[in-house]
Structure formats: structure tokens, C-alpha cells
Design brief:
single chain, alpha/beta, Spore Coat Polysaccharide Biosynthesis Protein SpsA, Chain A, 2 domains, 8-stranded mixed beta sheet, 48% helix
Length: 389
């Protein structure tokens, strides 16, 4: 079957995702093999640290998540939780924590009544104000950490040029195929983009599961109060600190996050929320994701020129590079074993990711913890508040 000019152009465009995949492999190998990791947990930089945790409702395995922060191999730190009200179901768990770890400074504070659209960010503003120490470790309530966590993530701030640090997060244990799909999506898709962004433009973002910085760095851009009506507060904290001229360091280290996906629909909705936010935060970058979608482009190439050589070359290259990416990031880099088990889900994830990307152009609202928000001109507008806290 002869090629027309149009077919030739489409086949060329369909190969662009493979160039992106090769860039992911190059960037990942450079990052994981050359980033300083060994010795971080033995660093002698151990300033007193305030661990800040905004909480709303009860996450799965909440006690074990919280308790992991009480078992740190670190000389001096405090753990502060911020709740919305005293009837939050997480409060009894935190009180049990205080009884079980009497030697650890554990405090509970409550969000102020001052009006703010983003409930989580309002709590973070309150937490920063209440912190006793200059150095801050901020993370979401569903995070679980190893005993070397604080020593490892605080180490980069020993260098005066570093304004913040962040790190990856992996599953604490997949309980279902849906959890496995989330795992393979994070490792092969989301983290691939994160590592390429670091290679091309430096780290100008942070990931909410770990943000390490200081009160002074936050104050320089107005602190969390300046972000109360904005989406993607974690990304913005990293960006605004980088804009001050400081480095934001991405560590080749992972905390654990307890998956709570009861269904495929829940996973779809959460990822769609992320993508809608990213479309508003980085519109051109979001549009450019079209050229990173290897599966739909390979299918388009086969449909445009249906032949065995085209099918074998495109699908073969697609599968080989996607498996190599997942192995490099998940197994070589993050030292996880579960990606092997969920490799067959790669095309399922890529098909779902493409649908989510398309759907993100049709939606301007997001839902978080029962609250509905609209996004207008990069700002959050509360559409409806859930009755429960």
C-alpha cells in the first residue's frame, strides 16, 4: 500500500510521543543515578521542625499514618494537626495518638472563622501561624513515612540556595485492580512528566505529600493566605519560592500514601480534577500533552495505514518504551516491586488518561472532599459546601 503525503505526515506526527518517551528515559536515568540520596538520612543538619497536617475527615488507616510521624529518628520536632471543628471524626484518632506517644509534642488546633474558599489552604495558614519552629514539613493527612523521613527531606535546606524540597509518593499497598491502575498511572505517566519538567525547566513546583520549607520563604510571597482562593496550592508554593530565586529540590525518595479508591469512577473523578486544575494553571502545557499520548497516536497510525509493518512498529515501540519507562521510574528509581504486577494495565491506563485529557476541556469545576468549586480566571469560586466537616 503506497503512502500519500497526508499519511506520511500523520505517521510522522504519530511517532512524536516516542521521542517524548525517550526523553523520559534519559531524564529518569540522569535523575535517579546522579541525584544525591546516600547519606541524606545521616545528615548532621537537624534544626527543630514543625510538621503541619491539615485534616478533614478520616482517611483509611489514619492512625498508622499519623503514628509514623511519631516514630521519627530525629532530635526535636512537633506535630500539629488542624481540624475544622471539634466534631471532626479524626479528632479521637489524634487523641489516641497523644496518649500512645506522650513524649511527642502533638497539638490540635482549629481553623479560624475567617472566610476562605479553599478550606485546606486556610488550615495551612493557621498551621504556619501556630508552628513553634522556623523549618516546616507540610504534607497531606493520608501520608505514611519511614523513620528516616525528616532527616532525609530536611537535608537539602542546609544549603542556603535551596528554598524548598519535595519528594515522590507511592502506594502503601494496592488492595484492588483500581489501586494498581492508580499506581501504574502515577509511575508511568505523572512522574514521567514531573521528571521531564525538572530536566527541561528545573523544579518549579512541589508535591502536596511533602513540602519542606521555612516560614521565611513562605512569608516572602505572602504565605498560604495569598493562596486561599487558588487551586493547586502545592504547585504554587513551589513555583512562588522558585520565583524568589531559590532552588526547589526534588528528592529521589518516596513516602507512602494509602489508596482509597472504592471504584474506577472515583479514580477517574480524582484524576479529572487534577487535569482540570492543570488546564487552568498551565494551559499550553496541558494542550501539549496531546503529543505525549503514544497509544491513541499508534492506533491512529494503524487506522491511517493499516498494514502489519505499521502495526508491529508502532505498537511494538509503544509497549517497549512504556515498559522501559515504568521499570526505570518505579523499579530502578523508586525501588518498588508492584509495577511488575501491574504492567499489563499500561494500555488500560493510557486509554483512560486520554479520555480524561479530552474530558478536562469540557469541565470548569472540581470537587474536593464533598465541596464543589468553579475555576474562573485561575481562582476558586465555591459553588457548594458539604454539610459535613
Amino acid at each position: 500500500m503506497s503512502l500519500t503525503a497526508a499519511t506520511g505526515v500523520l505517521l510522522g506526527v504519530a511517532a512524536i510521543p516516542f521521542i517524548y518517551y525517550l526523553l523520559v528515559l534519559y531524564s529518569s536515568v540522569r535523575f535517579f543515578l546522579h541525584s544525591p540520596r546516600a547519606g541524606a538520612a545521616e545528615s548532621d543538619f537537624t534544626p527543630p521542625v514543625s510538621i503541619l497536617k491539615p485534616v478533614r475527615g478520616l482517611d483509611p488507616e489514619a492512625y498508622e499514618n499519623f503514628a509514623s510521624f511519631c516514630r521519627q529518628d530525629y532530635p526535636e520536632y512537633e506535630l500539629i494537626f488542624c481540624l475544622g471543628t471539634a466534631d471532626d471524626p479524626a479528632l479521637p484518632v489524634i487523641q489516641q495518638l497523644q496518649r500512645d506517644f506522650p513524649g511527642r509534642p502533638i497539638r490540635v488546633i482549629y481553623r479560624s472563622d475567617r472566610s476562605a474558599v479553599n478550606d485546606k489552604v486556610a488550615k495551612l495558614d493557621r498551621l504556619v501561624s501556630a508552628a513553634h519552629y522556623e523549618h516546616l514539613v507540610i504534607n497531606d493527612s493520608g501520608v505514611r513515612v519511614a523513620p528516616d523521613y525528616i532527616r532525609t527531606v530536611i537535608a537539602p535546606l542546609a544549603r542556603p540556595t535551596v528554598g524548598a524540597a519535595t519528594c515522590f509518593y507511592v502506594s502503601a499497598g494496592e488492595k484492588s485492580v483500581v489501586d494498581g491502575l492508580q499506581t501504574i498511572g502515577m509511575i508511568s505517566d505523572f512522574y514521567a512528566g514531573v521528571i521531564v519538567a525538572r530536566q527541561l525547566d528545573g523544579v518549579k513546583f512541589a508535591l502536596g505529600e511533602t513540602i519542606v520549607t521555612t516560614r521565611a520563604r513562605l512569608a516572602q510571597f505572602g504565605g498560604y493566605r495569598a493562596l486561599e482562593n487558588r487551586p493547586a496550592d502545592d504547585l504554587l508554593v513551589g513555583r512562588l519560592i522558585a520565583e524568589q530565586g531559590y532552588e526547589v529540590e526534588l528528592l529521589p525518595y518516596a513516602v507512602r500514601s494509602v489508596d482509597d479508591y472504592g471504584s474506577l469512577r472515583e479514580l477517574f473523578v480524582k484524576r479529572l480534577r487534577w487535569m482540570v486544575v492543570m488546564r487552568h494553571m498551565r494551559p499550553w502545557g496541558h494542550l501539549g500533552l496531546l503529543l505525549t499520548q503514544g497509544l491513541p497516536w499508534s492506533i491512529a497510525a494503524i487506522a491511517m495505514h493499516p498494514s502489519l509493518p505499521v502495526a508491529l512498529s508502532y505498537l511494538g515501540t509503544y509497549f517497549a518504551l512504556r515498559i522501559a519507562m515504568t521499570w526505570t521510574i518505579g523499579i530502578l528509581g523508586l525501588k518498588q516491586s508492584s509495577p511488575w504486577k501491574y504492567m499489563p494495565l499500561l494500555p488500560v491506563w493510557d486509554a483512560m488518561a486520554f479520555v480524561i485529557w479530552l474530558a478536562s476541556f469540557l469541565q470548569n469545576s472540581i470537587r474536593w472532599r464533598g465541596d464543589e468549586y468553579n475555576i474562573r480566571d485561575g481562582m476558586l469560586v465555591l459553588a457548594s459546601r458539604s454539610t459535613g466537616e
